[in-house]
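Researcher: Quick test of sequence recovery. Tokens follow.
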């Protein structure tokens, strides 16, 4: 189970759960937080389920700010969903309060824990197995944008400061190159040059946010397929989960990260770069779903800049993998000595392929203006 049951029971006792605890099981395969599925029996064969989760305070150093974001956004979503006649028990995360009224519990060992109501009859998937699922995730993330379009984004805490600030990411990348603490820079000059040649690109979205050319919005910042719950019966995306990185930013971040991950024809750490490209059919499908989900909340400028969002999020990820490789692989977990270098190369290959297909990508988004 990862932790002693007695320890988990003590933590659970602080939350306002219903019924008697029947079972506690490790749930999911996330790399950041420890997650457990808790089943409670309320009597006469009736059960209710919860998600108990340890927040990783090494990555998220401000649990108060993080939970303030989560509670604020989910409460806002719940109201919007109710007004639209939806089911707020399934269409947004529902935070379980502590018995003393708080939103998270600090355990004796200094760890931080929170609870959600479990979303019944729904599943999430780690990989795009069929195009329909990718489309449904696009609609769901777009709808998330629409529902939160009038939420005061500037009131949110930055749970990871400068997370998608590509200007800051580039500055840190240059520091890693200059320091060359592991003596690896000489072997990756081609990759370093590739990133530095696109320095101007790194400023585009940051500058547009600063000048107000594109609006500051609530962004999820981890828009992989496995952060959408798909209804088991209809296959529709019903709930956006994993809100730890909800922060102020650009809708283009969320769109771009999905394309980086979901429209890639190969694995993130594929060594054979001939297998890596941006699948334009999946790009078009996701673009359609995302814009439909946004329901008119995107500006014309944002729609025109969607390809740049895809390119920049991919470039950013590539430079992060490369910086970590240069610094000794201290951030991303690796399974082999050049794992981060392989990851970097797939991202940069994806960027190059997007550049080669730029006019086609622009033509796809033009249809929605």
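Model:
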């Amino acid at each position: 189970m990862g932790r002693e049951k007695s320890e988990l029971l003590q933590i659970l006792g602080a939350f306002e759960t219903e019924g008697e605890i029947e079972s506690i099981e490790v749930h999911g395969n996330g790399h950041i937080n420890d997650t457990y599925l808790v089943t409670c029996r309320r009597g006469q064969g009736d059960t209710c389920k919860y998600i108990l989760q340890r927040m990783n305070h090494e990555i998220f150093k401000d649990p108060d700010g993080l939970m303030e974001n989560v509670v604020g956004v989910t409460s806002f979503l719940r109201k919007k969903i109710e007004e639209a006649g939806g089911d707020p028990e399934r269409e947004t995360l529902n935070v379980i309060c502590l018995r003393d009224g708080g939103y998270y519990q600090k355990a004796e060992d200094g760890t931080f824990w929170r609870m959600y109501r479990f979303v019944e009859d729904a599943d999430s998937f780690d990989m795009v197995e069929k195009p329909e699922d990718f489309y449904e995730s696009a609609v769901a993330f777009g709808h998330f944008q629409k529902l939160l379009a009038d939420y005061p984004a500037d009131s949110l805490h930055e749970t990871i400061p400068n997370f998608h600030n590509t200007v800051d990411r580039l500055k840190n990348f240059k520091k890693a190159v200059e320091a060359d603490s592991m003596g690896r820079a000489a072997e990756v000059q081609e990759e370093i040059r590739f990133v530095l040649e696109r320095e101007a690109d790194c400023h585009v979205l940051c500058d547009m946010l600063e000048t107000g050319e594109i609006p500051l919005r609530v962004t999820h910042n981890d828009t992989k397929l496995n952060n959408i719950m798909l209804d088991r019966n209809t296959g529709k995306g019903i709930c956006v989960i994993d809100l730890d990185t909800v922060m102020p930013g650009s809708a283009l971040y969320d769109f771009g990260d999905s394309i980086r991950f979901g429209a890639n024809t190969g694995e993130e750490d594929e060594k054979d770069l001939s297998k890596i490209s941006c699948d334009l059919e999946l790009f078009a499908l996701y673009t359609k779903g995302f814009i439909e989900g946004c329901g008119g909340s995107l500006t014309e400028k944002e729609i025109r800049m969607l390809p740049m969002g895809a390119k920049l999020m991919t470039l950013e990820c590539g430079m992060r993998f490369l910086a970590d490789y240069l610094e000794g692989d201290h951030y991303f977990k690796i399974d082999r000595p050049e794992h981060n270098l392989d990851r970097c190369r797939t991202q940069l290959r994806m960027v190059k392929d997007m550049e080669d297909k730029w006019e086609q990508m622009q033509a796809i988004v033009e249809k929605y203006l």
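Residues 91 and 239 are 5 Å apart (CA to CA).
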